[in-house]
Amino acid sequence: MKIPSSIWTLLIGIGLTLTSLWYGQNHGLLPTAASDEAVLVDGLFNTMMTVSAGIFLIVEGVLIYCAVKYRRRAGDNEDGPPIEGNVPLEILWTAIPAIIVIGISVYSFEVYNDIGGFDPHSVHESPIMQESMAMPGAAIAATLNDTPPSTAPNLNQQKSDEAMQDPATAAVRNADQIPQKRDAPGVGSVSPSIGASPENVGKPPGLKINVTGLQYAWIFTYPETGITTGEMHVPIGREVQINMTANDVIHAFWVPEFRLKQDAIPGRQSELRFTPKVEGDYTLICAELCGPYHGAMRTQVVVEKPEAFEKWMQEQLVANNNTLKEAVAVNPANLTPDEFLAPYTKDMGIQPEMLHHIHK
User: Fold this and answer.
1) What angle do CA 261, 234, 34 make, to 5 degrees?
2) Helix, strand, coil shares of the chain as percentages rounded to 5?
3) For 53-58, which contacts have Cβ atoms below 8 Å and span 24 or more sequence positions?
4) What is the C-alpha separation between 262 and 248, in angstroms, rounded?
5) In what order do the strands lie in the sheet with 270-274?
6) Interior/surface letters 251-272, b for 16+ CB within 10 angstroms, e for the rest
7) Which of 30, 55, 57, 315 has the smallest number of Cβ neighbours within 10 A?
8) CB under 8 Å to 194, separation ≥6 — which residues?
């Protein structure tokens, strides 16, 4: 009994769909999803892998089928039949990719919005956007001139001043040597930001950490306690707000398990919010080529239970106090600054050979 081609097409379609769905959820290409935001990003990635796997199987399957079925037989030296084209088929294979791309674009924007990447209120409330809306042509002029009107507040400077109120942060950052840039032209964006997720909008973050990038180390200061460390600790289930800048060149804060990456830019105050969900030690990588020792600019982000985090905080408070008492003592051996600071910075996760790159 010969099976109709329509039945074959249906069975092959079901097989391709099931295979694509299975691979989209079981590709194993991503590391642990260690934050609430990672789950959203993984959903988008899995969807793209499902669609990509289906398209790959269809295209490669048709190519292999045609190469086998329509291969040249022995003794066949005739030209192939002239084919002028098929308009409905061309419309179909143009419309399907267009629909897929539009669908993924909409889904991508929804994920970006859900992780706090877009806040329409901050755009409309920006002084530059208000002026652009009030004055015809002002938006075009703003994009041609990267210096907004002097009457507009410098929000980067305001955020920098707020961070510098913490003595520990002020001791690390050289904000007095780097002028704080004004709003980005046209959109009133202070700096690269991934803000609060929709359910946390309007709520204060559970934990604030000031992050300073410099060649070639990350320095973390906790303004609520004055702790300074080279290894970041955060508690599970508590939203963390990272306020970030750089002392020299552009760096990038990237923890693959969090699925979030944000630039640390001299003269700008970047913001990043996330909520850790899986306990563990994760590597923080600088994702911008920042100099010859760029590959060594990495440290650990420790996600731990709230009680373990509180214990660590208490230990750091004691350690910082003891370190301060020891550091103000006389240096009887006349050590160089690098040699003198090495024992103290070792506990902070800063490599001794990088000390000479750190400037206040």
Assistant:
1) 55
2) 45, 15, 35
3) 53/19, 53/20, 53/23, 53/24, 54/16, 54/17, 54/19, 54/20, 57/16, 57/19, 57/20, 58/16
4) 16
5) 193-194, 270-274, 240-246, 207-214, 217-222, 227-229
6) bbbbbbbbbbbbbbbbbbbbbb
7) 315
8) 115, 116, 117, 260, 262, 271, 272, 273, 274
Q: pLDDT tens, position by position, for the chain (360 residues)? A: 677 888 888 998 999 999 999 999 999 999 999 998 899 999 999 999 999 999 999 999 999 999 998 888 888 888 878 888 889 989 998 999 999 999 999 999 999 888 876 554 444 444 444 444 444 444 344 344 445 555 677 888 888 888 888 888 888 887 677 888 876 554 444 566 776 666 667 677 789 999 999 988 999 999 988 889 999 999 998 999 999 999 989 999 999 999 988 899 998 888 888 999 999 999 999 999 989 999 899 999 999 999 999 999 998 888 776 655 554 454 455 556 556 556 655 565 555 555 555 544
The owner of tokens 């889904």 is 107
What predicted TM-score, i.e. pTM, was given to this entire model? 0.73
Tokens 């700008």 found at = 268
126 sits in the region (left: phi over 0; alpha: psi -120 to 50; else beta) called beta
Q: 115-147+155-360 — its CATH code?
A: 2.60.40.420
Domain boundaries, the chain: 115-147+155-360
Quick check: bond before 293 cis, omega within 30?
Answer: no
